[in-house]
Design brief:
By secondary structure, the chain is mainly α. The protein has two domains: about 55 residues; about 80 residues, no CATH class. Helix content is about 60%, strand content about 0%. The protein binds iron/sulfur cluster (SF4) (2 copies). The site of one iron/sulfur cluster has 15 residues, from helix 4.
């Protein structure tokens, strides 16, 4: 679904359900829910776009992108990471950690790689990559 189509769906959702939800004081939660659906859908599309773009890159370009993402990764400051002996990074795009076992908080949502690559999940070190969590691998 394209971005304009998602906007139409979200606004239709508000227009059709709003009057009923308003009667039960549920109008504003409905608006936020629709906006969240729209924004979530946008992120999902960005991820899919990035997957297509990286597939078209040369090996050298892909290597440079991964190196840049690894440089930006903020896992090393995360409470689930500190003290585990883990040295690897970029679990969102590579694989789960073999050392991190306990989920004590995840800082992925504030990581610049997330917005750059269109990531929409978290706890990649324990739950698997973005692709795995989306059931794509
Ligand atoms: S999203 Fe998480 S796993 Fe991926 S680079 Fe950022 S901090 Fe590391
Ligand atoms: S993936 Fe999330 S939970 Fe795991 S180390 Fe990185 S920031 Fe922390």
């Amino acid at each position: 679904m394209s971005r304009p189509q998602r906007l139409i769906v979200a606004l239709s959702h508000v227009a059709l359900c709003g009057p009923y939800a308003a009667e039960s004081n549920g109008f504003y939660p409905l608006v936020y829910y629709s906006l969240a659906l729209f924004i979530g859908g946008s992120l999902m599309d960005k991820w899919e776009d990035m997957v297509k773009k990286t597939a078209q890159m040369s090996e050298k370009e892909r290597g440079a992108l991964m190196a840049e993402n690894k440089r930006l990764c903020i896992c090393a400051k995360c409470p689930s990471y500190v003290g585990t002996g883990e040295k690897e990074l970029l679990f969102c795009l590579t694989s789960k950690s073999t050392k991190i076992k306990k989920e004590k908080g995840c800082t992925c949502r504030t990581c610049p790689v997330g917005s750059k690559m269109g990531l929409a999940r978290d706890y990649y070190c324990t739950r698997g990559t973005e692709a795995q969590q989306r059931g794509k691998k």
